[in-house]
From TrEMBL:
<protein>
    <submittedName>
        <fullName>Nitric oxide-sensing transcriptional repressor NsrR</fullName>
    </submittedName>
</protein>
<keyword id="KW-0238">DNA-binding</keyword>
<dbReference type="InterPro" id="IPR000944">
    <property type="entry name" value="Tscrpt_reg_Rrf2"/>
</dbReference>
<dbReference type="InterPro" id="IPR036390">
    <property type="entry name" value="WH_DNA-bd_sf"/>
</dbReference>
<dbReference type="InterPro" id="IPR036388">
    <property type="entry name" value="WH-like_DNA-bd_sf"/>
</dbReference>
<dbReference type="Pfam" id="PF02082">
    <property type="entry name" value="Rrf2"/>
</dbReference>
Length: 151
């Protein structure tokens, strides 16, 4: 299974915010620059993460972005599942219905097997937290992206 670019960026933003510590904040512009993505794309991802309740976004002079919870409490599997969706949200690995329905859909066993594989993918990510994927040696790479973004 391949993650969308949207989910990939969401995970990178969470990881970057995790290494800022409890008192650290970042701006969307700084994150976009550090992660080499457009500001517009980063804004959409930050909005989604804020909507999921994993990023706290505050406006104003003392505003900025920070993790809404401790990085050790945010499950990678939960974030990916909520951003990517799954069969329970109408997203499957393969499209059997739609404009050009598959002629095998009435008796195909592949669809069920792919659903099981998709859930196994998410389940493998469930025990991992943002803190886990942001720890050394990744931590030093995340910190090397630039100074603590506070602009």
């Amino acid at each position: 299974m391949q993650l969308t670019g949207f989910t990939d960026l969401a995970l990178r933003i969470l990881m970057r915010l995790a290494v800022l510590g409890e008192d650290g904040t970042a701006t969307t512009g700084a994150l976009a620059e550090q992660l080499n993505v457009s500001y517009a794309h980063a804004t959409k991802v930050v909005t989604a993460l804020s909507g999921l309740g994993v990023v706290d976004a505050r406006r104003g002079r003392n505003g900025g972005l920070r993790l809404a919870e401790d990085a050790g409490a945010i499950s990678i599997g939960s974030v990916v599942r909520r951003l990517e969706g799954g069969p329970e949200q109408g997203r499957e690995v393969v499209e059997c219905e739609g404009a050009n329905p598959c002629p095998l859909r009435a008796g195909c066993r592949l669809r069920g097997a792919l659903r099981v594989a998709q859930e196994a993918f998410f389940a493998a990510l469930d025990p991992l937290t943002v803190a886990d994927v942001s720890a050394a040696p990744t931590q030093s790479l995340l910190l090397s992206l630039g100074p603590r973004p506070q602009d």
